[in-house]
Amino acid sequence: MSLEVISERFRRFAIRECRDSSELYEQLALNIAEDDELLRLASAARSGQPIPNLLFGAVHYLLLKGYRHELREFYGSIVDQPRNPQHAFPYFRDFCIHYQEDITAMLTSKLVQTNEVRRCAYLYPSFCFIYNIAKKPLSLIEIGTSAGLQLAWDKYRYDYGLHETYGNPHSNVVITSEIRGERLPFLLPKSPPAYDSPIGKITVIAVPFPLLFTFLWHMMHEP
């Protein structure tokens, strides 16, 4: 894969994934997109993997393992008062160059298993629709669960911009979404359909919790 293609992936990641979500990763991704040396490092990622996620996950993992570097001062998952993310890139670059071998080892051996809890925004009305037809409690098996966030879809509260919320009324997790068009989906007002048997969990690759934690990049709290 050419450096130009990888560069564009980092730009797209910064704008589509990080803007209004993680200023740290937005700033880093935009700068990486202009740095050929870091792009060459990122090119070591296994084919088919989301390169920005994997590079950021590798660096975060090493920091969490205790690798000593000033870069750690920009991560809200490591320090209580992270530094201004706009000043982070020189430290990030220095960390990557200094620990290039360790980062490359992770890029060539690890996989990213994404788990977007906001996907439940469309799972909830789908399950409500099925329940309304079947009139029976639902059982669920997910293949490739990763962190299993979708399996807890009945534990969340949902806001579709309809002046009321749905799902679990006691949940502190509120998933917001927008309904487009005139036809509204069927939504159970309060309680999601209950399960009549335990949930099955199947995952292709066993991923240790510390590695999953490295990809929680929304935790990069900015001051």
Q: Which key phrases capture this entry?
A:
single chain; 223 residues; mainly alpha; 2 domains; three-stranded mixed sheet; two-stranded parallel sheet; 8 helices; 5 strands; 7% strand
Structural account:
- The chain has about 220 residues and is mainly α.
- The strands form two sheets. Strands 3-2-4 form a three-stranded mixed beta sheet, covered by helices on one side.
- Residues about 205-215 have low confidence and may be disordered.
- It has helices spanning about 5-20, 25-30, 35-40, 50-65, 90-100, 100-105, 120-135, 210-215; strands at about 140-145, 155-160, 165, 175, 200.
- It has two domains: about 5-115 and about 210-220, no CATH class; about 115-200, no CATH class.
- This is DUF2332 domain-containing protein.
Content of β-strand: 5-15%
Largest sheet: 3 strands, mixed
**Total beta-strand segments:** 5
Mean model confidence by pLDDT: 85
Evaluate the radius of gyration: 20 Å
Strand order, biggest sheet?
Answer: 3-2-4
- Number of individual domains: 2
Structural class: mainly alpha
Number of helices in the DSSP assignment:
8
Order of helices and strands: HHHHHHHEEEEEH
Distance between the termini: 36 Å
